[in-house]
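Hi F.,

I've been meaning to write this up properly since the lab meeting, where we talked about keeping a consistent format for the predictions we share between groups. The idea is simple: the sequence comes first, exactly as it goes in, then the structure tokens exactly as they come out, then a line or two of notes. No screenshots and no reformatting. I'm using this chain as the first example so we have something concrete to point to.
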Amino acid sequence: MDRVAVFIDGSNFYNKLKDVGIRHTPKFDYRGLAEWLAHGRTLTYCGYYIGVVRAKPGDAKAEAMKNQQVNLFNNLQSKRQLITVQQGYIMENHGVYHEKGVDVKIAVDMLTGAYEGNYDTAILLSSDTDLIPVIQKVRVLGKAVEYIGFAHRPSFGLQKHVTLSRLLIRTELEPFAL
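Output, unedited:
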């Protein structure tokens, strides 16, 4: 039986869901989606990778975002979901915020899992082309990599390097939006 590991780029996934009008992401059924994408294969790992919001005192918007993220983490780590949360950080540079460390954590976990034989197929929910080198290396190691993107904004760069690509549409995602 094929063993599958699912790697979700949280910020990327959140923004793509928002683009298609799905906004209830703190309560989204990520485990259900991962199992659906696994198509009956054994799910050995499901990780959600995201930069952590840190609120400055008195910043109401940041506090609200932080509270939403806490709700998201509680959902992901609940007994119903059992998702591993891997945290990067968010850095501010002249009023512009950048997520840092997330792609590296995805890459390290994909490579480690491939080297240690923890999965046969990596399912990647990200459209970040910075992950192409890790995809190439995981494939050299004999593992399959499936890219899961969104039909309205696919990553043609990633599609060129994976074993299989699948583009989701809103109606496929709606059953997981609780």
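Notes:
The first strand starts at residue 3 and ends at 9.
The domain at 3-49+100-176 is CATH 3.40.50.1010 (Rossmann fold).

If this format works for you, I'll send the rest the same way.

G.
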